[in-house]
Design a protein that fits this description.
homodimer; 120 residues; alpha+beta; Arc Repressor Mutant, subunit A; three-stranded antiparallel sheet; 6 helices; 3 strands; elongated; disordered N terminus; DNA-binding
Chain lengths: 120, 120
DNA sequence: CCTCCATATTGACATATGTCGATCTGAGGT
DNA sequence: ACCTCAGATCGACATATGTCAATATGGAGG
């Protein structure tokens, strides 16, 4: 995925989500908002990344070491790294270095935001 | 999107979703389930399709005529048809012919399923 | 400083995806 | 029958995406 990073620190995405799913006869979704939301959803819409999120969710503290992923996922290390990068850039995971290892923690709020984007 | 249709009549997808988001220390997501869920999420993870869903949601009866879409979306008719096909195959819309027009109706349950797939 | 190990990045590749113009199909109306 | 219009499909194209081998990076420990 070409990584035009989702502006996550700011509330832009959250606002776009609200505008997209505003209940009642709200104005149809604007393209710019849709682009922003789609970028977040694209990050989740991949089998491997769904598996990663599942593994992290089930791990104590909702965090996992990158070294533990290639085996259960059955894919090469660079590929895992690639997917982790996408999830981090989407704001769904945070990265933290511990010694020579990289740990990734789930950001539940971000996942909630993605879910909210699909509200009717 | 190459259209390996999501098995929507059957409950397979719904079961896959449940297995993927089963709360507590459930077993990590299996690849096959993740593939199924990803196919549904991919259908939603596109700016144009998000806009289409937004328009349908805001329309009376949650239904819309295909003829009313190219203008607000700003894309050509074949492209609209392409996206509608993907949404129908994902089970998010149903198609109905009325005379020479094609009407599309939202399937809220399907959208709920997609949302459920993102539960933590 | 040099080596080892875990990650990240790069380059190359095949495939998937979004887009449009041109054409086919199907339902009315004359 | 014919014509017309809405929609679907086809063909072509550029770009995006997922994958891996090879290589670079960066911390830990001798």
């Amino acid at each position: 995925m070409t990584i035009a990073p989702v502006p996550d620190g700011r509330a832009e995405l959250a606002q776009a989500v609200e505008r997209c799913c505003a209940t009642e006869g709200s104005s149809p979704v604007m393209r710019a908002d849709a682009e922003l939301v789609a970028r977040l959803l694209k990050a989740v819409a991949d089998p491997v990344r769904l598996q990663i999120l599942g593994i992290v969710r089930c791990s104590p503290g909702m965090e996992v070491c990158a070294c533990d992923l290639p085996a259960p996922l059955g894919i090469a290390q660079p590929t895992v790294s690639h997917h982790l990068k996408i999830l981090v850039e989407a704001g769904l995971l945070t990265r933290e270095r511990r010694g020579q290892w990289a740990w990734f923690t789930l950001v539940p709020d971000r996942l909630s935001l993605a879910r909210r984007a699909l509200e009717v």
